[in-house]
Amino acid sequence: MRTPVFELHIRPMFRATDKAHMGFAVDLWEYDDVVANADDILERLQSDMPPTGTGGLWPEEWITLFKRWKDGARKRLDLGTAAFTLQQTAAKTTITATGTFPAADVEGWLQLESETDTSKTYVLYFEAPDTPVGGTPQLFTLKESYPSTDTRSVFIHSSSGTQQLH
């Protein structure tokens, strides 16, 4: 069974209504806050979060997944590092990330993190295997494309911080 990962499995379960309901005590979309308050969050999920009038309790399988994450490794994704380029053609714009994974069997991808009317931000994620394996870290080239008619500014969030691509 796969180890649950905060950014892939836990954070997406926290709905905006859950975040609003618990906002006085914890930011449910922030890993460190959720880790620090995991026992209290689980207790609330099992009893009254969120109230029936604002969405109702989580399904039991969500609560079970949260508990498995809380009681396990509390795994999360790492921010990756790479060299980034932006290339435009008449039809599409392509973001390319190139580099070397930090260890063997690490996987990586570019993911749209947020967007506004004027910009979009992608994040470079790395996911280590549950059980490290021996071997040589592999080179990677990751690409994300979108229509060239989208002229918003592009930002990349990586382990080096956030940078704008031109």
Describe this entry's structure for a reader.
With about 170 residues, this protein is of the alpha+beta class. It folds into two domains: about 5-70, no CATH class; about 80-165. Helices cover about 25% and strands about 35% of the residues. The strands form two sheets. Strands 1, 4, 5, 7 and 8 form a five-stranded mixed β-sheet that branches. A three-stranded antiparallel β-sheet has the order 2-3-6, with no helix packed on it. A hairpin with a 3-residue loop joins strand 2 and strand 3. The longest helix is centred in the middle third of the chain and has 12 residues, at about 60-70. The radius of gyration is 19 Å and the shape is globular. The N and C termini lie far apart (about 40 Å).
CA-based gyration radius: 19 Å
Question: Which percent band covers the strand fraction?
Answer: 25-35%
String of helices and strands: HHHHHEEEEEEEE
Between the first and last Cα atoms, what is the distance in angstroms? 42 Å
Enumerate the spans where pLDDT stays under 50 for 5 or more consecutive residues: none
Look at the structure and give the mean pLDDT: 93
Instruction: Provide the domain count.
Output: 2
- Identify the overall geometry: globular
What is the structural class?
alpha+beta
Q: Could you provide a short overview of the structure?
A:
This protein is of the alpha+beta class.
Sum up the structure in keywords.
single chain; 166 residues; alpha+beta; 2 domains; 8 strands; 24% helix; 33% strand
